[in-house]
Write a structure and sequence with these properties.
Blueprint lengths: L1 E9 L4 H9 L3 H9 L2 E9 L2 E8 L2 H6 L5 H11 L2 E3 L6 H4 L13
Antiparallel strand pairs: 1-3, 1-4, 2-3
Amino acid sequence: MQIVALYTRLRPGQELEYEKAHRVVPAEIADDLRARGVSEWRIFRRGVHLFHVVHVEDYRAFAAGPATNATAEGWGAVMEQFLEIQNDMDDPDRNLLGQVWALTENGQ
């Protein structure tokens, strides 16, 4: 399992619309992500700055591969309208995170 950090930035004034679009993400989007090896994707927002933390089996394959259904393919176009800076998947190695330390439920 690989953990990836992605950064995107919203166009100013699009914060609430972006969040509204994510209130009900189509099931086909989740199906596509799972089919491509993603087990978890979390998005955090601070102002217009979005921080994505993704757990994926093989990030290089995920970044290179196309969506598996038309709904997922169209989702990217919907998200583009909100974003000033898109996900940078051109260099997958740059987005991989190496864990230094963790506090877990079971201790350190």
